[in-house]
Each structure stands twice: as structure tokens, then as C-alpha cells.
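Re: the 138-residue chain
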Amino acid sequence: MLEKFRLNSENSIIALYELAGLYRKLGNEAKAKEYESLLMEVDPQKDPNGIEIWAKVHLKKGNYEKVINTVESIISTNSEAKHLSLILAVAYAKTGKMDMARQVIDELKEDNFWYLYGKKEFFDELLTQSEKEKCGIV
């Protein structure tokens, strides 16, 4: 059943992420890693609904520059994607660019405080307490 679902959603970041999670819950870590690897190869610009998940997986793997380059490109070509800058804040913090991370967070606080507040779990999962403090999240 899961394999059939996978075939119907080959380039869906969300579907690949969910399949990886399901296989992980079933105790099949090899299959989970396989789907996670497939997810990492998907072009997030072709699946805009999955950009945040794509970035989260890459950030957990330490692919900070890839996330920065991809998300900066998306934001520069799509004014509706400004909310994705929170991903940049995390990647900037992880690469030691705290001033840039703080600037992004300050802009989000001014423009869209409640969206930022709603992403607390995202930050908690990816940043240390010290990193959150340095870039102005807490």
C-alpha cells in the first residue's frame, strides 16, 4: 500500500517525508532513510508546499549552504515567499551569521509576529537555546 502511494507521489516532498516517518515508526530504518534521501533530491521549487519540510531535513543533515542558496533564490523570485525567511534565520544561525539571522527575525517580528510565534517548535527542534538567544528568537 505504501509503495503504491509512493509511486503516485514520486516528487511530493510531503509524501516522501510522511513515508519516511511511517517506515521509521514501523522499525524499518533502512527504508526510512531511502525515502529521506529521495526527498533530499527533490527540487523544492517544483513542490512549493514542501519547501519547509525539505529545508528542515537538509538543516538536520547540516546542509546549511544548500538551504541558504535555495531559499534565497525562491524568496528573490517570489514575493509571496517572504515567510520562508524563517528558514534562512535558522541556516544563518547554524553558519554563524548571527547578525543576518537576527535581522531576519526582527523583520518577521515586525511584519508577521504571529507566524513567527507559531513556528516555535521549528526553532526548538533546529536551534540550541544559545542560538535562539543570539538571533533574538527568545
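DSSP finds nine helices and no strands in the chain.
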